[in-house]
User: Fold these one by one.
Assistant:
Number 1:
Amino acid sequence: MARAILRGIDFYYELSGDAPADGERPRLLFINGTGGDLRQRPRLIDGPLTDACQLLAHDQRGLGQSGKPDQAYTMADYADDAAALLDHLGWPSAHVLGVSFGGMVAQELALRHPGRIDRLVLACTSSGGGGGASYPLHELAALGPDEYMTRVISIGDTRWAQGGEGRDEKRFAQIAAFVKKRQAIPGDDEDPERKARGAQRQLEARLGHDTWDRLSEISMPTLLIGGRYDGIAPPENMENLAARIPDSRLEFFEGGHGFLLEDRRAFPRIIEFLSDAL
């Protein structure tokens, strides 16, 4: 757990897992999704990834324990922040795993700083533009916390659509309780208005994401992974990414937008892909 001033902003980051020795362990930068806060539990960065990699993760600008400047954010800002963090740690390059919004940032990072990425994993994300955009979450921003959560769960997995055939209301309620508990951060006394402003800035930047016409410039080996029932980053969007990124492969797993927490095959596949470089 550490902090660094990068590009004039105070960033919170965590580094876990043993350092590489003689190239035996890869370095991995994890880039989180919309509203991502490293205090939320459970975390995708805890578990098998740290057993296989030295893992770096940070709260992005406007989120979590990082700074929240009241100014417009761009996708280029998020990508340049990530590159600055690699510089801070003295990492010439690393593998990168971007999830959802983090996958959008990872695309921009690959385009703006191609020499910094060895292998790229893009999970449940979209290119924007002609390749299709992820669900416009900014349209839900005015909802209350409980209604927002219910809507996002319903959208994130097409099997949970309101009134959908076969929807198990008891199971849906269990998932909603799990997500609500995950969002609660004990001891968080930050000003709610400041937090909301940072989150809104991220949603505004997300609106401007469009790498579609530049995807052919992504040159590193890329693994694209998605959920079969994802309604936020639909399978079609993942297929469009695969069609444009030259050295890419696409695999789908059981689940919706949260398939990484649902399908136990996903993380071993990520580790296998990253280990191919050793």
Number 2:
Amino acid sequence: MRHALIWGGIGSLILTAGLLLATAKHNPVGAAVAGGVPSILAQLPSWLQDCLLLLIIFAFFSCGSSIQGAGSRLAFSYARDGALPGSGWISRVNERFKTPVNALLMGAVITVLFVVLVYINPGTNYHIWFVTYPAHVNALVALVSFGVSGIYLSFLLTVIGAIVARARGWRPEGAFQLGKWSWPVLIVAAGYLGAMFLNVVYPSGLSSARGLFNLDWITLFIIFIIAVVGAAYLLIGRPDRNVERRLRGTREAPEAPPVTTV
């Protein structure tokens, strides 16, 4: 794991440094938006372009497969505790391969369906209350924009959950613990993630340099819809009761008798 982090960090630094060094000196944001990464790579020697393209392809494949695996793993874990609709089907484990095959299939199918969004490209502006979806902006761009802010939001909520749990007396188990540094690390992490999340989702307008990250109010609007749907399911379906029953059953499960040898 340590070597994976080290070499992953070195590869990311090389790729980022190459793209930054190849960016146009005058109006770099405009040049990047107009021509994208290919216009930046065109400034480099051909052999270096090939190396960076290989890194980009590997990064896309690695990120895509890891996100798909992580989504399937989360779906299985939530379904195992009865916290999702259709939990029995989603949490089913293949008898031969011992893998949550239905959760993996669901993650693959949803991924393919989202890819189809590339064919949605409205020709005119669409107004939803005070939110305007701009014309000629591919729906996949909106999904990627939400994904950028969603990553920061998911980690921020995890840190907030850890802060609340520690304030209620929870102490982590395992060999790796931060000890007295836990509170400083949690506070700094929450501050950084909160600042980055606000920086990404702040509706500064479509003409601003950050317009590709938030599409004005679009990203916040999607987050609001997801929050409303999640809150409605929590209040109507009450999946928290299923989770509590499972946790209670786990805590009260009798321990296995000791194995004796003759």
